[in-house]
Design a protein that fits this description.
The chain is built from eleven helices and eleven strands. By secondary structure, it is α/β, with parallel strands linked by helices. The strands form two sheets. It has a seven-stranded mixed β-sheet, sandwiched between helices. Strands 7-8-6-9 form a four-stranded parallel β-sheet, sandwiched between helices. Helix 2 packs across helix 3. The longest helix has 22 residues. It is elongated, with a radius of gyration of 22 Å. 6-O-phosphono-beta-D-fructofuranose (F6P) binds next to loops.
């Protein structure tokens, strides 16, 4: 193998730049030619592919976003689109690919590998932490810390005005961010897509808590089965508005995807990036390089996509016990 390429795809995540840096510098260290593809699979289809050098990734380890840009590509979902992408790689004699993204990115990579046989290794880059085969995904720790900082501030005003705050965090299909910042932020409740939200139970508990607390923080993952934080707030409010003075909603949104990556994300990203290149050179393919229990592991894309990394039930219990 002489030439490989790297791209970022799906939602950006803090630490993607550190991962690109690790891929580029490991490739150069191993005497490979390394190419950067802009705008994910769209850029691969359009041929937005440039040679990268060590200096191309200088001064980016601390930066959020991705210097390669990211995109969600509809065309890559079609066979014709993927064929165009393959032809672009073939023209440049690129023989291996590193894709940094989430489970959608890995689904595309798996199909691409099966159709054209180009070895592909993924690095888990998404704030959602919803990928099987790695304890944490790149960007998750930063997103949790960003959300936590906001919750700490919201708590001040919630306490000052005796309010119930519903704080919506990201997680289309996953409650990992909600659970971690719920524990760290001392939330009274956390609502996640993985478990059924019981509004009656929440109302009953809030009434009970009213005896000892005048304010509460409820963290809602955006994909909760009862709807958005706004919808949930209105349902809860209609049942207990006499008991609490005020109900407020704060949606944290995309601030969770930006900012300088934490040390944990930079280290994880660097390890996964290096492992992806080493894996390609050792003949690994159609898999993701992740870190589990401190060790680098290669997990088949099939497992990363089809197996779920369940929320720890004891984490949910922890929130319930500590909120009394
Ligand atoms: N079934 C599929 N076939 C081909 N390509 C796919 C498929 N699923 C996803 N992709 C490609 O992967 C891209 C990224 O997927 P997606 O938008 O789901 O983000 P992701 O990688 O899961 O990241 P995040 O978790 O941050 O949303 C899609 O825009 C598409 O180009
Ligand atoms: O704004 P976008 O890019 O559509 O992404 C939103 C989604 O991306 C994620 O943040 C994952 O990166 C989800 O939690 C969220 O639903």
């Amino acid at each position: 193998m002489k030439k490989i390429a790297v791209l970022t795809s799906g939602g950006d995540a803090p630490g993607m730049n550190a991962c690109i840096r690790a891929v580029v510098r490991t490739a150069i260290f191993k005497d490979l030619e390394i190419f950067g593809i802009s705008y994910g699979y769209d850029g691969m289809i359009k041929g937005s592919i440039k040679r990268m050098h060590s200096h191309s990734v200088s001064n980016i380890i601390q930066r959020g976003g991705t210097i390669l840009k990211s995109a969600r590509s509809e065309e890559f979902r079609t066979k014709e689109g993927r064929l165009k992408a393959y032809q672009q790689l073939k023209q440049l004699e690129i023989e291996g690919l590193v894709v940094i993204g989430g489970d959608g990115t890995f689904t595309g990579a798996k199909i691409f590998f099966e159709e054209f046989g180009i070895p592909v290794i993924g690095c888990p880059g998404t704030i959602d932490n919803d990928i099987y085969g790695t304890d944490f995904t790149i960007g998750f720790d930063t997103a949790v810390n960003t959300a936590l900082e906001a919750i700490d501030k919201i708590r001040d005003t919630a306490a000052a005005h005796d309010r119930i705050f519903f704080v919506e965090v990201m997680g289309r299909d996953s409650g990992y961010i909600a659970v971690e910042c719920g524990i760290g932020g001392g939330a009274e409740f956390v609502m996640v897509p993985e478990t059924r939200t019981d509004i009656k139970k929440v109302v009953k508990s809030l009434k009970n808590l009213r005896k000892s607390k005048s304010s509460s923080i409820i963290v809602v993952a955006e994909g909760d089965d009862e709807g958005s934080a706004d919808q949930i707030m209105n349902t809860v409010k209609s049942k207990i508005q006499d008991e609490f003075k005020e109900f407020k909603v704060t949606t944290l949104g995309h601030i969770q995807r930006g900012g300088n990556p934490t040390a944990r994300d930079r280290v994880l990203a660097s390890r996964c990036g290096m492992a992806a290149v080493e894996g390609l050179m050792a003949g690994e393919s159609n898999c993701m390089a992740g870190v589990m229990s401190g060790n680098v592991v290669y997990t088949p894309f099939d497992d990363c996509i089809s197996k779920t990394k369940a929320i720890h039930q004891d984490h949910l219990k922890l929130i319930e016990i500590l909120s009394i």
